[in-house]
Backbone:
């Protein structure tokens, strides 16, 4: 009797389908993920006691973040320079110096950022300036 020896075949694992599945999952998660960018500034107002004033329809609001970044009427400025702030105020107000100007600053904002905003308003000739606060009970 003659026994023939069979040649041993090495087991092969085909990785192509596995790689295809991984890439499909990667593409699925990339497409289905939403990337949101925060457009609103997070501001923690300082406390004060007093009556709230009546809100005027046309006004200019300067928002200052905790890090000292400026936004005018909800539109963030490109940098924190005084000239940029002044030109943005001039553009938004349309040259009307009697437009009420409201400064809304975070309670942890550097004092220099608030003083710079007040200085820019003073140099442009704004006469009606107010600072936003919150009542102590609102916390």
Residues:
């Amino acid at each position: 009797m003659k026994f023939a020896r069979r040649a041993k075949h090495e087991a092969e694992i085909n990785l192509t389908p596995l790689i295809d599945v991984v890439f499909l999952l990667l593409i699925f998660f990339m497409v289905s993920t939403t990337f949101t960018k925060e457009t609103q500034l997070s501001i923690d107002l300082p406390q004060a006691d007093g009556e709230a004033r009546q809100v005027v329809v046309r006004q200019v609001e300067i928002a200052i973040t905790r890090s000292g970044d400026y936004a005018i009427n909800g539109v963030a400025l490109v940098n924190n320079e005084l000239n940029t702030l002044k030109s943005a105020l001039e553009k938004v107000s349309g040259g009307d110096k009697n437009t009420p100007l409201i400064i809304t600053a975070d309670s942890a904002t550097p004092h220099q950022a608030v003083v710079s905003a007040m200085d820019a308003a003073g140099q442009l000739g704004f006469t009606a300036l107010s600072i936003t606060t919150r009542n102590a009970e609102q916390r």
